[in-house]
Amino acid sequence: MPDATLDDRGRLTLPKDTRERYGDRYRIVELHDGIKLVPIADDPLDALREEFADVDESADELRERAREEALDGAGR
User: Fold this and answer.
1) 36 and 1, same structural domain?
2) CB 26 within 8 A of CB 19
3) CA torsion angle 57 71 48 26 (round to 10)
4) Among 37, 42, 43, which Cα is nearest to 18's?
5) Fewer Cβ close by (within 10 Å): the C or N end of the chain?
6) Quick one: pLDDT at residue 42?
7) What was the pLDDT predicted at 9?
8) Is residue 3 domain-shared with residue 30, that is, in the same domain?
């Protein structure tokens, strides 16, 4: 993984191959031991649709399944 440094104005320049792979927009996430740059898709809704294209359950069904799994994990 390449290193990057801030310039005297506080700007961070990412290497060209990184920008080409992940794009030009990022969300900065603060962690307890540093930061993480999370790429932001040009169209976030399209990215979500693609990510969940193969999910056949409704949101209510997914929520109920997650609830059941959490209860089972808690020793119900």
Assistant:
1) yes
2) no
3) 180
4) 37
5) N
6) 83
7) 96
8) yes
Closest CA to 37 of 20, 48, 25, 21: 25
Domain range enclosing 26: 1-40
Find the length of the chain: 76
In this structure, the answer to whether residues 32 and 47 fall within a common structural domain is no
pLDDT in tens, 8-59: 999 999 999 988 999 899 999 999 999 999 999 888 888 888 888 888 888 8
User: Measured between alpha carbons, how far is 13 from 35 in angstroms, rounded to an integer?
Assistant: 15
Q: How far apart are the first and last CA of the chain?
A: 45
What's residue 11's pLDDT?
94
Write down the pLDDT at residue 67.
Answer: 94
